[in-house]
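Morning, I've got a small favour to ask if you have a moment. I'm working through a protein record and want to make sense of it properly. The fold is given in discrete form, as structure tokens running alongside the sequence. Can you walk me through what the tokens say about the fold? Thanks so much in advance, here it is:
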Amino acid sequence: MPTSETLLPLTPDQGNSLVSLARNTLRNHFGEPVAPADDAALAQLSHIHRGTFVTLTLGGQLRGCIGNLVSTGSIVAGVHDNALKAAFHDPRFSPLTRKELDQVHVEVSVLTDPSPFSYQDGADLAARLRPGIDGVIIRKGRFGATFLPQVWEQLPTPDLFLSHLCRKAGLPENQWQKGDLTVLTYQAQYFEEAKKR
């Protein structure tokens, strides 16, 4: 029976298998031969439901990032589907090319379930968020957006993080200071390929 708790946190072997799955999914798309996956590690994850994201970077710059905040299927199915979406259906980028495939860097994130985050005002929100740990979802009316915990590496202070997140959501950058956003937080385990030299 599917569960959101069993076998979490993931082991390094499971994480590496998910990264390989994402890479091999892209290679399959271009018709490249692919070595058999570590079926044991992936089989353990085929019954666990969690939100997943696949992030692609090229030369240190974002090249595609698509995911789901809550599970729509198993971790394995989510990584497979989101690898294809990040490479070929991220509306911010043109589809990944075969030439880029060898240079692109693959990262997989496995999320905890989002939880409502209570706060008093903008200052309280900024003070209580945990940089490097919390992924954040903001919502106001029809507007909404999320940043994975890894985004803190580029936007290390709550002010910067929240201002850019508001802009991503289509809201004024200072909207978070007004204390009227619905906020949820989650954490993520992430795994990535070895950096190319």
